[in-house]
Specification:
33% helix, alpha+beta, binds fe (ii) ion, 6 helices, 26% strand, 2OG-Fe(II) oxygenase, globular, Jelly Rolls
C-alpha cells in the first residue's frame, strides 16, 4: 500500500470516530483541500491531492461502481422540447431577480423547475445511474453573465452531494476560441472538459468529484438549472438550505 493510500485511509478512518458535526467539518476541510490541490501545478501537490481524493472517495455516500467523472450525460427522454422551452422561459423570469455572487448569479427554482425537482421521471433517471439517492426538492437556476464569472475547482457540501445539472442555454459570441465548460478534475492532476448543449444533462457526485466551470468571456452567457439529491435516509436538515 502506498503512503498516499495509507493517508487517505487514515483520514477516512478518522471520520468514523467523529461526531456528526465533526464529520461535517472534516468533510468540508477535505473538500476545500481537494479544490486547492486539483488546481495546483507544482509536483509537491501530488501526494496530498491523491490522499484527499482517496479519502473523499472512501467517504462517498453513494454505492456506484466508480464515483469519478460523470455518472450520466445525455438528453433524457422526459425533457421534451416543450419542457425545455418552458424551463428556459422560467429561467428568464427568475434571472431578473437572481442574486449576484462573485462567481455567478443564483435564482431559486420556479414552479416548472420545482415540479421537475420532485418528479418521478427525474428520480427514475437518477436511480438508473446512482442507486438510493433521494430528491431534496431543491432546484436552482445559475447564471454566468459577467466576463470572468466561473467556478474554481471545488467539492460541494451535502446539499449538492449528488448534482443533476441541466444546460439551458449557452450563448457563445462568434470567434470565441474556447468557450466556457464544465471540468472534472482527477487525482492525477488531469481534467476532463464537458461542453454541454442546451438540454443536455449531467449527473455527478459533486460531494466527491472535484469540478469547476471555466470563466466566461465578454458577451458569453451560460444558464444552468441544477437539482440536489441526497443519500436515501440521510438527515434532511443537512440537505436543506
Ligand atoms: Fe459545485
Amino acid at each position: 500500500m502506498s503512503d498516499t493510500s495509507t493517508m487517505g485511509r487514515r483520514l477516512a478512518g478518522l471520520h468514523e470516530r467523529l461526531t456528526p458535526a465533526e464529520q461535517a467539518n472534516l468533510k468540508l476541510i477535505l473538500g476545500l483541500s481537494a479544490g486547492r490541490l486539483v488546481a495546483a501545478t507544482e509536483a509537491e501537490a501530488a501526494p496530498g491531492r491523491e490522499a484527499v481524493t482517496d479519502a473523499l472517495e472512501m467517504l462517498c455516500p453513494y454505492d456506484v461502481p466508480d464515483p469519478r467523472g460523470v455518472q450520466y450525460r445525455g438528453r433524457p427522454d422526459f425533457l421534451t422540447d416543450e419542457l425545455l422551452a418552458s424551463l428556459i422561459e422560467e429561467s428568464g423570469h427568475v434571472g431578473k431577480t437572481a442574486v449576484p455572487y462573485d462567481e455567478h448569479y443564483l435564482g431559486y427554482g420556479g414552479p416548472v423547475a420545482g415540479r421537475l425537482a420532485t418528479s418521478r421521471e427525474l428520480a427514475d433517471l437518477v436511480a438508473s445511474v446512482v442507486p438510493k439517492a433521494e430528491a431534496t426538492g431543491v432546484a436552482s437556476y445559475l447564471y454566468y453573465r459577467d466576463a470572468g464569472q466561473g467556478i474554481i475547482p471545488h467539492i460541494d457540501t451535502d446539499i449538492f452531494s449528488l448534482n443533476v445539472l441541466m444546460m439551458l442555454a449557452h450563448d457563445i459570441p462568434d470567434g470565441t476560441p474556447e468557450p466556457s465548460a464544465l471540468h472534472m478534475h482527477y487525482a492525477d492532476g488531469s481534467k476532463e472538459r464537458f461542453q454541454l448543449e442546451s438540454g443536455e444533462v449531467v449527473i455527478f457526485l459533486a460531494g466527491t468529484q472535484a469540478h469547476s466551470r471555466t470563466p466566461i468571456r465578454q458577451d458569453e452567457r451560460v444558464s444552468i438549472l441544477t437539482f440536489g439529491f441526497m443519500p436515501e435516509g440521510a438527515p434532511l436538515e443537512n440537505y436543506k438550505r
